[in-house]
Amino acid sequence: MAVDGLLDKRQNRILDFVVRDYIQTKEPVSSARIRRRLRLKESPATVRNLVASLSEGGYLEQPHISAGRIPTDEAYRYFVDHLMVNVALVPSEIKRFEAVRDMDSEMIARFFSDALNLLSITSIRDADHDFFWQYGISYLLKEPEFHARGPVSDIGYILDHTDEMFNIYHQIRQSNTQLFIGKENPVSQATGCGVFYLVRETSEQKERILLIGPRRMNYERALAFIHYFLERI
Q1: What gap in Å lies between CA 222 and CA 181, rounded to an integer?
Q2: For the chain, which residues make up each domain, given as ranges?
Q3: CATH number of 9-83
């Protein structure tokens, strides 16, 4: 199916559409919708076979027998590594950054939360004490993935163990900006999430940031904000 871990052109196009469509609509994607929206010339049977091959490869799953397909953790990772494009911030977003250039850690947590509709937690160490700020739990709880008791309990656990979460992610990180998707997360309570772990160091302090959203988050937009923040602010 895949050569050197890469899908072929048709599979890439279909997987890219399914991921983007599911991020936007929050609804499983049918083969008929894929064929219609991509204006594919292949027959319905051929499109169904292509979708089936992506399912067999571990990239798509079917939440219910009669439903369409949704992306798996592997699909989101493949999308981020191979299909995603760099998104430039629009002037109004850049202006928003400049307006808060000198923001403190609490303002940073609020800024990322409001800009990306994610749960944002920031941490700084002052002398022998860690200080934490978090915003955006209401954004997270509006997402359908977090309507059930289990996912809500998992988010509650993360918030109750913030210091532990930062230490775990810091120990396993391989760079100052790292994304963990679903099962890639080092704690079971975050396996239903996409999590960005960021470290920003200045001459005065080390600042750590966790951005938490559904696996179905808009990774392109999130990374555009993250890169601009780390490189310019």
Answers
A1: 13
A2: 9-83, 91-232
A3: 1.10.10.10
CB atoms within 10 A of CB 51: 24
- Domain 91-232, CATH homologous superfamily name and number: GAF domain (3.30.450.40)
CA angle 152, 181, 17 (to 5 degrees): 105
Of 208, 104, 127, 200, nearest to 164 (Cα)?
208
Q: 225 is written with which tokens? A: 């904000």
Torsion (CA) 187, 190, 192, 196 in degrees, nearest 10:
-120
Reported as a pLDDT band with limits 50, 70 and 90, residue 6 is: confident
Q: Residue 201: which of 167, 225, 177 has the closest Cα?
A: 177
Q: Residues 67, 72, 77, 82: is their CA dihedral positive or negative? A: negative
What is the spatial distance between Cα 176 and Cα 164, in angstroms, rounded to a whole number? 18
- DSSP run (H or E) holding 175: none
3-state secondary structure 89-107: CCHHHHHHHHHCCCCCHHH
Both tokens of 201, joined, read 């160091």
Q: What is the pLDDT of residues 136-180, one digit of tens each?
A: 999 999 999 999 999 999 999 999 999 999 999 999 999 999 999
The whole-model pTM stands at 0.92
Residues 49-73: tens digit of each pLDDT:
999 999 999 999 998 877 799 999 9
**Which tokens is 143 given?**
């997402």
User: Nearest 10 degrees: CA dihedral of 219, 225, 227, 230?
Assistant: -140
